[in-house]
């Protein structure tokens, strides 16, 4: 099946992300809307930005910048949120920090201002094949937890139709693979002082996914 010119260039992004990460002895895990396409092995729709988190991002930042710029990308690092960004033409990808300790993955989605904690084992251990391009993803469990409980990340984010469709898809995969929704939701939580500073007092305490309802 033919793919659009934009998605062909998006594949080049994914290829470069994998190759640059490998050259720097790290891994970058794709998360967000594009993961559903990767799980299915084909583009299902057009996408905007590529979102990822990279292991040991801060330690490798200079090396990552050098590799991407050598491949023709423009780069930017947002110090306050520890977010690394790359551009080529009209396509863009952003990377957050990922750290691990004792089997726990820590996604610093707002740098020092917000972290999501979840089992490291949820992340892909081997790369997936996507149009003959190697890609690591955040995994089905992570995507389900984040998409069904957006309150782990933000009090203002509202699920969109495509997010609800993604949750329904992931629920089918979870059932097919014999996974437990309860066990998934019991094993992810977040702490986001960023939102306390914005006036959301409830974020002074860690946010949990279980037993919150999907709309919480």
Average pLDDT score:
95
* Radius of gyration, taken over Cα atoms and rounded to an integer in Å: 17 Å
Low-confidence stretches: none
Main β-sheet description: 11 strands, mixed
Number of domains: 1
Beta percentage is 25-35%
Distance between the termini: 40 Å
Named CATH architecture: 2-Layer Sandwich
Shape: globular
Number of strands: 11
Q: Could you walk me through the main structural features you see in this protein, from its secondary elements to its overall organization?
A:
The chain has helices at 5-23, 34-40, 57-70, 140-148, 161-176, 181-186, 193-197, and strands spanning 28-31, 50-55, 74-78, 83-88, 91-101, 104-112, 115-119, 128-130, 133-137, 189-191, 207-208. By secondary structure, the chain is of the alpha+beta class. It has one domain (5-208): Beta Polymerase, domain 2 (2-Layer Sandwich). Strands 1, 2, 3, 4, 5, 6, 7, 8, 9, 10 and 11 form an 11-stranded mixed beta sheet that branches. α4 (140-148) crosses α5. The radius of gyration is 17 Å and the shape is globular. The termini are far apart. The mean pLDDT is 95.
């Amino acid at each position: 099946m033919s793919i659009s010119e934009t998605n062909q260039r998006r594949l080049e992004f994914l290829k470069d992300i994998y190759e640059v990460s490998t050259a720097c002895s790290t891994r970058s895990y794709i998360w967000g809307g594009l993961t559903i396409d990767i799980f299915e092995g084909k583009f299902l729709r057009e996408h905007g930005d590529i979102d990822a988190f990279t292991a040991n991002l801060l330690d490798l930042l200079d090396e990552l910048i050098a590799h991407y710029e050598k491949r023709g990308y423009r780069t930017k690092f947002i110090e306050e949120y520890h977010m690394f960004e790359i551009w080529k033409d009209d396509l863009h990808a952003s990377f957050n920090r990922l750290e691990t300790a004792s089997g726990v993955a820590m996604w610093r989605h707002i740098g020092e201002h917000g972290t999501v904690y979840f089992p490291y084992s949820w992340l892909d251990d081997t790369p997936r094949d996507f149009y003959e391009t190697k890609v690591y993803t955040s995994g089905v469990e992570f995507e389900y937890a984040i998409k069904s409980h957006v309150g782990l990340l933000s009090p203002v984010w509202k699920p969109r139709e495509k997010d609800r469709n993604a949750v329904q898809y992931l629920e089918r995969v979870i059932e097919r693979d014999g996974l437990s929704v309860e066990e998934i939701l019991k094993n992810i939580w977040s702490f986001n002082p960023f939102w306390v500073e914005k006036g959301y007092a409830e974020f002074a305490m860690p946010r949990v996914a279980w037993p919150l309802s999907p709309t919480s």
